[in-house]
Amino acid sequence: MPAETSRVAIIGASALPIGKLTATSTGTNEGLEHDFLAEVAARALSDAGISGQDVDAAIFTQNPPTTKQLGFATFMMAQLGISCRGLVTEVGQLGLTGGVAFDIAATQVSSGQADFALALGVVRQSSGDPNIALDFGIRAVGDVNFQAPFGIPPIGWYALDCVRYMEDYSVSRAEIAQVAVKSRDNAALNPLAQFRHPITLDEVLAQRPIVEPLGLLEVPSRADGAICLVLSREETARELGGASVVVEGRGFFHEGHHQIADHPHDMTAFPSAQIATGTALDMAGLSLQQIDLFELYAPCTITEILVTEAIGMFPRGEGHRALSEGTTTLRGQHPVNTSGGCLSRGHPPQLTGLYGLYEIREQLLGKAGPRQVQTARYGLHTCELGNYNATLAHVIGVCE
Amino acid sequence: MTLPVVTLGLKRPLDIEVTGVTQTFWSGLAEGQFLLPRCSQCSRLSFPPRKVCPGCHHRDFTWVKASGRATLYSLTRIHNSPPRYNLLSPTSVAIIDLDEGIRLLTRLLPDDRPPVIGAACELVITRHPDGMHYAARPAARL
Fold first, then answer.
1. Does the model's ipTM exceed the 0.90 cut?
2. Within-domain flag for A91
3. Fewer Cβ close by (within 10 Å): the C or N end of chain B?
């Protein structure tokens, strides 16, 4: 039995490009959710250099409400012909989902319940009725008797943040919207990204409003994807000999609110992001300045600015300056969302946490091609729930 | 004194489930009052009504009539909610801080005075074919 302090490595990964998992040119679906995920899982195992028989645990992200197949985790393991002595289950916690699947898979490994664990999932919803996902989102981010009846979707809460932030710090929509342009510039270099055509600030500002002041390109689009990460202990990764990355630190905090508290508080401060990230950095023995790149869960332009401020990259009210000064671009001092993030890499909500970790691994292994951050040794990942009421943070480093 | 009542012609978008915990609140709305539960032990005001006080986990409450006076904390107009939520088009929502110290999210009614952050606003009761709900609007001119 390994010591409980075993560090956990990501030893293999595979992901589909984010977009629409639907029909071929002949109109026939290439497959259903389990088919897409089976192919991705098989590729991830191959990438890790292990077989299905080696897998001891599999933590799935819960499917969106448009998925017909239920009992998905065990159904999926039957598709793959894998038996497990560890845990096989689905987890679902809104935007935290992908990160939680990873976190539980990592705990399976660090506790010795699994030698090899998968964190994986599929989202196939863009061909379904959009109102199903919207209605689900509305009920997930609001009290069903006292908030949801007003029809506020998850991104509506970020719009409320945006309006308040603009007023508190005298910041314009255009200054915030620059995040969308930067995201697209990064996504243009990412073969997994949903949107790769460069866009201008004028184009962003000219789109129809979705949740005012945010328009179509300042919020995420519907997106499908499938992804699988393979985890083992760090020593196992060394024995296997392939290139891998390790979890250096981890932190979580929930502030005890669901979207807003019933007593006034600073809604745009995101204290959970500050605390969870601080915990993860402390565990890693690193300072924020030592982090080479950041994959931060940010469905809307404003969210990226608020979370960069919350974790201490910039003073309150000044996060937008990073865009005009280039600090958070690929070649800047603190590259943020090198993948293109939720806005352009794409945002299948349950999978975004896993795609963020995937990007950090690509960067740390030097596999990011034209969007490679030079000499990247450490990456910080966050995912969140609600209006960043909860944050799960991981610091990932190169396994040397 | 009772709060203003505005009639909206459409049903509430989600069926409201009245329970032993919330019945006093909904009955209050029907009588023109917006009632806030106050914990009998620690005096904390809460909203929405709940079974236990989030401050001290005590389970007895008294009810306080809100004045209806509030300050606008933030607002947005929503263009992508499913059709059944669009009682008014476009749907507007606001976070307001009641003078009693309670923050809540609610519908923002259209008004010829454009709402701005920090402005005084007031709670109104909305009457629907299937019952009462509530909203906010810029405060009446004195």
1. yes
2. yes
3. C
